[in-house]
C-alpha cells in the first residue's frame, strides 16, 4: 500500500515547482467555457450547438440534484428536524469599528493572540466552522457507493470535489469565528444528512481543534491549527494539520488545506482568496493534485481550481476544473494545459454550490451555517456544559445584543488566560488523545454514549462564573 502521510513543506514546495508554465496558462473561466458558445473544440459554433450545450449543462445540474436527492432519500426514514432559515432579528443597532485601528500595532504578529471586539466576530465558533466543511457530505456518500461498485476513479473524483466544496462557504465571509475556550466542544447530529460530527479544542497555545465525523460507510477526522500573519494590507492564514478520510472498505485519503489570504485590510473592498497546492493522497490506486490559483488584481476569472487524477504509474487519467465558490467538473483523460481545446459536452459536473439564503446579513452565512448555532427543541437539555451553543457572548451576538456580547467576551477572555496554566499542570482533552508518534489527535470514543445517558460528570462549566484571583495568579 502507498503511504498517505507525507505532508512536509519541502514536498509541497517541490510539487508547486513541478507545475509547468503550460499548466499555469490553462486557468480560465470554466463557467463561461462550459456555458457559453465562445470556444468549443477551438472553433465557433452556431446557436443550435449552443442550445444543445445549454441543455447538456441543465441535464448535468439535474443529475447532481437527483443524486443529492437520492442520498437524502436514504435518510428519509429518520425524523426530519425543522431547522431555522434565518438568524434572529438584532435587538440593537450595530456599531461600526475600524479593523485597521484595532490591528495596526500587530503587523507581522500572530493574530490568534490579538483580542478584537465582538463586532469582528460571526456568531459561530471555530469548532462549528469545522463542521461547515461537511456541508456537502453527500459527495462522500456517493464516493462510498462508487467504491463499493468497484469504480475507484469516480470515488476519488467525488472526494476531490468534496475537498474543494468546503471552501465555498467562505465567499463573502469577512468576520472571524469565535476562538473556543480550552475544552470547549461542539456536536452536530444530522440524521437527515446521515452524519454525526464532534469537535473539541484540545490545546490553547498553540490553538488546536480536533474533529471526528461518522457518515454512511466512512469516517472523517483531523486536527488543525492556523498560523496567521498580518502584513499590513493583508492577513495570511496557513493551515497546519492533515485531514483523513477512511472508507469502511479500508481505502484512505489524506490531504492538507491550502493557504487563505484576506486582502484590503486598510482600504478597498475586503475579500479572501484560497491558493496553493492540495495533494490528495490515497493508499490504493489513485491520487489527486489540485492547484488553487492565486487571484491577481486584474484577474477576471478568480477562484479557479484545476488538477488531475493519477494512477499508480503516474499516468493522468482524469482532469478536474472549476471554481471553489461555484462548481467542479471532470473530464476523462489528460487535458492539463489544454482545457480550452476540450469540448464542454465531454465535461461532467461533480458538484454545484447551493444557492444562498434569501435573508442575508452582514455575516453572509450560508443556509447550512445559519443552523449550526441553533438550539432546536429539546437539544439544550442533552448538551454538555462545554458545547459552543451555550457560550453566552456568541449567543448575545447572534441575538444582536452587542454590548452584552462584548462584556461576556471580555469576561471569558480573562478566564481563557488560565488555560496555559492548566495545560502546564497536565490538563488533558476529554474526548481526544494525542498520538505519541506523530502528535495528531484521535477521537477516543464515548461522547455519544455519555450523551445518551446524560452523564457529563467530567465536563466542567467552562462558560460559568470563575474566581478572578485565579486569573491573576496564572499570569
Automatic annotation (TrEMBL):
Keywords: Coiled coil, Lipid transport, Lipid-binding, Transport. Residues 25-34, 388-411 have a biased composition (Basic and acidic residues). Residues 1-34, 378-411 are annotated as: Disordered. It holds the Pfam family Oxysterol_BP. Gene3D superfamilies: 2.40.160.120, 3.30.70.3490. GO terms for cellular component: cytosol; membrane. One of its GO terms (molecular function) is sterol binding. GO terms for biological process: lipid transport. InterPro entries: OSBP_sf (IPR037239), Oxysterol-bd (IPR000648). PANTHER family: OXYSTEROL-BINDING PROTEIN-RELATED (PTHR10972), OXYSTEROL-BINDING PROTEIN-RELATED PROTEIN 2B (PTHR10972:SF88). May be involved in the transport of sterols. Belongs to the OSBP family. This is Oxysterol-binding protein. It comes from Gossypium lobatum. The lineage of its organism: Eukaryota, Viridiplantae, Streptophyta, Embryophyta, Tracheophyta.
Amino acid at each position: 500500500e502507498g503511504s498517505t502521510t507525507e505532508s512536509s513543506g519541502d514536498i509541497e514546495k517541490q510539487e508547486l515547482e513541478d507545475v509547468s508554465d503550460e499548466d499555469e496558462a490553462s486557468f480560465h473561466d470554466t463557467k463561461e467555457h462550459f456555458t457559453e458558445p465562445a470556444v468549443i473544440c477551438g472553433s465557433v459554433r452556431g446557436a443550435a450547438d449552443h442550445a444543445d450545450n445549454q441543455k447538456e449543462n441543465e441535464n448535468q445540474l439535474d443529475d447532481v440534484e437527483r443524486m443529492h436527492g437520492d442520498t437524502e432519500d436514504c435518510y428519509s426514514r429518520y425524523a426530519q428536524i425543522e431547522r431555522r432559515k434565518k438568524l434572529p432579528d438584532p435587538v440593537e443597532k450595530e456599531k461600526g469599528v475600524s479593523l485597521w485601528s484595532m490591528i495596526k500595532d500587530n503587523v507581522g504578529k500572530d493574530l490568534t493572540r490579538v483580542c478584537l471586539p465582538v463586532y469582528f466576530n460571526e456568531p459561530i465558533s471555530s469548532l462549528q466552522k469545522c463542521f461547515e466543511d461537511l456541508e456537502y457530505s453527500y459527495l462522500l456518500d456517493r464516493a462510498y457507493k462508487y467504491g463499493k461498485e468497484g469504480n475507484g476513479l469516480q470515488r476519488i473524483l467525488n472526494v476531490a470535489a468534496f475537498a474543494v466544496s468546503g471552501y465555498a462557504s467562505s465567499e463573502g465571509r469577512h468576520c472571524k469565528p469565535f476562538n473556543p475556550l480550552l475544552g470547549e466542544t461542539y456536536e452536530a447530529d444530522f440524521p437527515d444528512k446521515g452524519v454525526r460530527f464532534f469537535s473539541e479544542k484540545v490545546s490553547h497555545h498553540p490553538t488546536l481543534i480536533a474533529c471526528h465525523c461518522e457518515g454512511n460507510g466512512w469516517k472523517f477526522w483531523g486536527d488543525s491549527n492556523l498560523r496567521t500573519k498580518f502584513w499590513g494590507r493583508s492577513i495570511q492564514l496557513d493551515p497546519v494539520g492533515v485531514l483523513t478520510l477512511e472508507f469502511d472498505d479500508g481505502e484512505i485519503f489524506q490531504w492538507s488545506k491550502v493557504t487563505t489570504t484576506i486582502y484590503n485590510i486598510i482600504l478597498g473592498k475586503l475579500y479572501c482568496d484560497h491558493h496553493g497546492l492540495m495533494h490528495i493522497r490515497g493508499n490504493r490506486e489513485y491520487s489527486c493534485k489540485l492547484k488553487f490559483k492565486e487571484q491577481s488584481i486584474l484577474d477576471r476569472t478568480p477562484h479557479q481550481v484545476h488538477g488531475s487524477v493519477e494512477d499508480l504509474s503516474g499516468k493522468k487519467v482524469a482532469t478536474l476544473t472549476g471554481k471553489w465558490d461555484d462548481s467542479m467538473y471532470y473530464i476523462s483523460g489528460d487535458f492539463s494545459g489544454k482545457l480550452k481545446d476540450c469540448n464542454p459536452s465531454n465535461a461532467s459536473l461533480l458538484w454545484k454550490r447551493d444557492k444562498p439564503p434569501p435573508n442575508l446579513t452582514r455575516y453572509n452565512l450560508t443556509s447550512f451555517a445559519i443552523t449550526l448555532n441553533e438550539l432546536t427543541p429539546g437539544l439544550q437539555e442533552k448538551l454538555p456544559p462545554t458545547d459552543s451553543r451555550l457560550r453566552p457572548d456568541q449567543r448575545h451576538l447572534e441575538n444582536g445584543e452587542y454590548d452584552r456580547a462584548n462584556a461576556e467576551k471580555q469576561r471569558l477572555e480573562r478566564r481563557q488566560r488560565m488555560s496555559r496554566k492548566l495545560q502546564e499542570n497536565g490538563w488533558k482533552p476529554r474526548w481526544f488523545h494525542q498520538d505519541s508518534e506523530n502528535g495528531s489527535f484521535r477521537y477516543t470514543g464515548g461522547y455519544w454514549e455519555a450523551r445518551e445517558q446524560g452523564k457529563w460528570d467530567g465536563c466542567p462549566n467552562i462558560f460559568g462564573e470563575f474566581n478572578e484571583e485565579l486569573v491573576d495568579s496564572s499570569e
